[in-house]
Amino acid sequence: MILDTICAISTAYGTAGISVIRVSGDEAIEKVNKIFKGPNLTKVKSHTLHYGFILGKNKEYIDEVMIAILKSPRSFTTEDMVEISTHGGILVTNKVLKRLLEVGIRLAKPGEFTERAFVHGRIDLAESEAVMDLISAKNENALKLAMQGLRGNVSKLIDDLREELLSIIAYIEVNIDYPEYDDTIEMTNEIIKPRIEAFIKRLDEILYDANKGRLIREGVNTAIIGKPNVGKSSLLNALLKEDRAIVTDVAGTTRDTIEGSLNLGGITLNLIDTAGIRTTLDKVEKIGISRSKKAIKEAELVILVLDLSEKLTEEDEQLLELTKDKMRILVGNKKDLGKKLDIKDIIPLSVLNNEGLELLEKTILDKLKLTEINMDFNYISNIRHIQKIEEAKELLLDVINSIEIGLPIDMVEINIKKAWEILGSIIGKYHPEDLIDELFSKFCLGK
After folding, report:
1. DSSP string spanning 218-243?
2. Residue 134: inside a domain, yes or no?
3. Which secondary structure element, helix H or strand E, spans residue 260, and what is its range?
4. How far from chain centre, in Å, is Cα 210?
5. Cα(114)–Cα(443) distance, integer angstroms
6. Which terminus of the chain faces fewer neighbouring Cβ atoms within 10 Å, N or C?
7. What is the distance between the alpha carbons of residues 204 and 381, in angstroms, rounded to a whole number?
8. CA-CA-CA-CA torsion for 59, 99, 68, 28, nearest 10 degrees?
9. Considering only CA atoms, which of 300, 292, 299, 306 is closest in space to residue 226?
10. What is the pLDDT of residues 270-315, one digit of tens each?
11. DSSP track, 138-186
């Protein structure tokens, strides 16, 4: 496949020590050479670095640069590639980019470099997505997960699953084409059914671990809730170790949700400090309370803060009822003022004196069952991948149902094939074009 030559700034936009402009395509080396004063780039060896200057239309110097030459197929896109390291000013970087456009190189679309690597077969779809996961990793464990995907661990897992289904499909095909060699009903019930059941069990195990992977990759949405003036904002500030939320003695100070991220034991907590929930006539406070209830609904973990120095109030009881079905941790703040509240499994702490925070952090990890995440990083974590595995599982559950009601084997086979194709869409086999466009459009320029 012949594609035109593209270019883009690959480093973050802004002032820095250097900026890197990436060029890829059959004419990449030839066209960059037209605006370069230095060694003849068309005659140098691959994977070499060259010093010189980028020239303007009137042969004036635009910038002093270093140019890396990466010849096909030993490059990220498998095409000829040039990487130009310029000085990191915004103006000079854009002037070099403009010169590339003037000699007929097209500006790349978001994700187009990685898309070309996929199109040319250097990486599959799951590995392509891992590139973006690597860039957007929020913590060290998310980085490790992304590296597993980039190294092909996810792709190998999916290939193994598809190979297993393919062997079942092949077995069925043989018996459909040569029915005299086997009894169809016996083959379905005694051979195919247990194999499909074992396969579904394997998918269940993958999906169970996938929840860990998703939490590692995306973080845990954690809502800090409680009645007004109980210490929610103080707790947020203490956990983040910064003054993110305004703290006063006036009840109802927090009128809107306030967010922050905390890395805890290799897990990112997406913390949300909510407005105190109570009955109020204040219109602005009502809006904040409505958003607080929405945050509770969407949270994967709720930290309910109670006042340890006073007995349970009607507002506290309402919050306990509101969160009873959520994954919840009960915290009793203000233990420095004495203890009047007696509730089972409540964590006593004093945010004012910085007491009890370590116990809270340990309880969070225990509650999420993520205390042993460092042991294994072979998790599926991408939401799209998880959804596709769930779709395949549903199809195979239909296969079991079809077998049990006695459908012909060729009818049973249809959903097995569909499951095989759906798993293939994870790594880019049997993929619709619009899926590819959607995935790569989310990448940043220059990737």
Report:
1. H-EEEEEE-STTSSHHHHHHHHHTS-
2. no
3. strand 258-264
4. 12
5. 9
6. N
7. 14
8. -110
9. 306
10. 888 776 555 554 555 566 666 777 777 878 899 999 998 888 888 8
11. -SHHHHHHHHHHHTTHHHHHHHHHHHHHHHHHHHHHHHHH-GGGS-HHH
For residue 101, is pLDDT > 90? Answer: yes
Classify residue 105 by its DSSP letter.
P
- The most confident of the ranges 179-193, 215-229, 266-280, 433-447 is 215-229
DSSP, collapsed to helix, strand or coil, labels residue 205 as helix
Q: Quick one: 55 exposed, middle or buried, by C-beta within 10 A (0-12, 13-18, 19+)?
A: middle
Cβ atoms of 329 and 264 closer than 8 Å: no
Q: What is the pLDDT of residues 8-49, one digit of tens each?
A: 999 888 788 899 999 999 999 999 999 999 999 999 999 999
Q: Which has the closest alpha carbon to 36: 23, 47, 25?
A: 23
Q: Is the pLDDT confidence value at 173 over 70?
A: yes
What is the full DSSP assignment across 275-331?
Answer: PPP-----HHHHHHHHHHHHHHHH-SEEEEEEETTSPPPHHHHHHHHHTTTS-EEEE
Same domain for 195 and 321?
no
Are 223 and 302 in contact, with CB atoms under 8 Å apart?
Answer: yes
Q: State residue 374's pLDDT score.
A: 47
Q: Looking at the structure, tell me whether residues 242 and 254 fall in a common domain.
A: yes
Q: What is the CATH number of the domain that holds 338?
A: 3.40.50.300
Q: Residues 120-133: pLDDT tens digits? A: 888 888 888 777 77
* Pair 304, 236 in one domain: yes
**342 with 232, same domain?**
yes
Helix ranges (DSSP H) in 103-139: 112-119, 125-136
Q: What is the CATH number of the domain that holds 170?
A: 1.20.120.430
Q: Which domain holds residue 365?
A: 219-374
What CATH number is associated with residue 63?
3.30.1360.120
Q: Are residues 300 and 342 in the same domain?
A: yes
